[in-house]
Amino acid sequence: MSVPFRHQQAAHCETGVTANLLCHHGVRISESLVFGIGAGLHFAHFPFIKINDLPLTAFRSFPGSILKKATKHLGIKIGAEKFWSQRAAMASLDRRLDAGIPVGLQAGIFWLPYIPAALRFHFNAHNLVVYGRNGDCYAVSDPVMEEPIVCAREDIQKARFARGMFSPKGRMYYISSVPEHVDVANATLRGLNESCRNMREVAFPLVGVKGVNFLGNQIEKWPEKLGERRARLYLAQLIRMQEEIGTGGAGFRFMYAAFLQEASGVLGENRLMDLATRMTAIGDRWRLFALRCARICKARTVEGDTYGALGDMLRDCAVREDELFRDLRSILQERWAAA
Amino acid sequence: MKIDEVPQDEGLYEGRKSVCYALGENDRYVLAPSTGWEPLNIANGMAWEVISKQVEQALRDVHARVKSPLAYHMALNQMDIKLMAQYVRLPIWRVRRHLRWEVFERLKPSLKGRYAAVLRMPVERISFVPEIQRDKGER
């Protein structure tokens, strides 16, 4: 059996799944609002953590945390389970589906046959919703796809028990209770507050705006330190982290700007519109940064495409983001004082 | 990014579209479909180039009997020894040993079957690798 489920394509898998699940339970909020309330915007560059021999750069918070924080801030309860046994994991999924509850799954993207071949890497923090089943065929709403799809049981099982970094271990989640009144405004404030903290107020130099600055300093040294060939691979990895796997463009900066616009409406705070405009400008800088990285990768450089210039761009982004979140902080503080 | 600036470069999505955020009317954000962006295509292409080099190298090693066919299948599935060890639930040193031609040849069918199950292929096929292509085709 399968329940009617409204599939909405989204830029990013986790926010898309959360928004789609919330919509199903009558809480109509957009993907970008989920992203902001869940304090998804982040930055981290860890040169010592390597994925396929390339350093980890993240533009978002830890996988799973957007769902957790967004629902927490909205006062919505979720049930989540992990499994040791693959059989138990599939049986539990079937039970929920038979009860008519759409279930979110964490999955390894490598094993999902409907994903275009060029995007199938061993990336395990993908999310999708299963909302029904007919024998061994599961009705899947994957937010990165245009339409819902049907997926075989075998593939779903394999994807749920993918191994390696962020291995899902059969993780599944569903919304268990929604309060009578969902306070979106309060949740938005909490999300904004948390993002200010994540981006500016973490006393660790590799995350938030300090992390952007740090990457700016590192990137200049790449050609000497790594040699031209590896430096280019590092750049390519950066572009992919920023633009691939559904960031909505510019490493989530555009999605956050969209959130700021919505938040402005939700809170009746016009100054957030200005911040959204500034965030868009920052996003455009990030896009230009990716474009220049790509030109260096392909050795199709034009005047001024150097690693030094890339470093300058990043440091500039860091300054701009720092100012933006500083101003956001003072707006929030004014509201606290007034309240 | 304005909605008319959303790039529509053919690429990774096999004709499908992803969505991204762009400024529509009155500078309000809307979801805009995009078929891809060239810088991302370049970056993705570089990642695949690395993988296909590894596959080619593995294939040569297998034909030279330096490595077992398992090495080729692992490269094709983007798996390193550590990841494969997690999938087949064997210690890393055993997987490493199974990458040697003569060790893999003598491997019990049941163990070969475990590898085949992970790689989703019939167990008979795991001992075979394709011929080396003289002319380099696409990825």
Helices and strands in order:
The complex is a heterodimer of chains A (339) and B (139).
Chain A lengths: L12 H12 L6 H7 L3 E11 L2 E7 L4 H10 L2 E5 L4 H13 L4 E5 L18 E9 L2 E5 L7 E4 H8 L11 E6 L6 H17 L7 H19 L1 H16 L9 H15 L3 H27 L9 H32 L1
Helix pairs in contact in A: 1-2, 2-3, 2-9, 3-6, 6-11, 7-8, 7-11, 8-10, 9-10, 10-11
Chain B lengths: L17 E6 L5 E6 L3 H26 L5 H8 L4 H8 L3 H7 L2 H5 L3 H11 L20
Antiparallel strand pairs in B: 1-2
Comma- or semicolon-separated keywords:
heterodimer; A: 339 residues; alpha+beta; Cathepsin B, Chain A; 2 domains; six-stranded antiparallel beta sheet; two-stranded antiparallel ribbon; globular; B: 139 residues; mainly alpha; 434 Repressor (Amino-terminal Domain); 2 strands
Describe the structure.
The complex is a heterodimer of chains A (339) and B (139). Chain A is α+β, with helices and mostly antiparallel strands and 339 residues long. Chain A has 11 helices and 8 strands. Chain A folds into 2 domains: 13-37 and 77-177, Cysteine proteinases (Cathepsin B, Chain A, Alpha-Beta Complex); 187-202 and 209-338. In chain A, strands 3-8-4-5-6-7 form a 6-stranded antiparallel β-sheet, with helices on both faces. The longest helix of chain A has 32 residues, at 307-338. The mean pLDDT of chain A is 89. Chain B is mainly alpha-helical and 139 residues long. Chain B folds into 2 domains: 3-36, no CATH class; 44-127, 434 Repressor (Amino-terminal Domain). Chain B has a two-stranded antiparallel sheet with strand order 1-2. In chain B, helix 1 (38-63) runs antiparallel to helix 2 and helix 3 (81-88) crosses helix 4 (92-98). The mean pLDDT of chain B is 87.
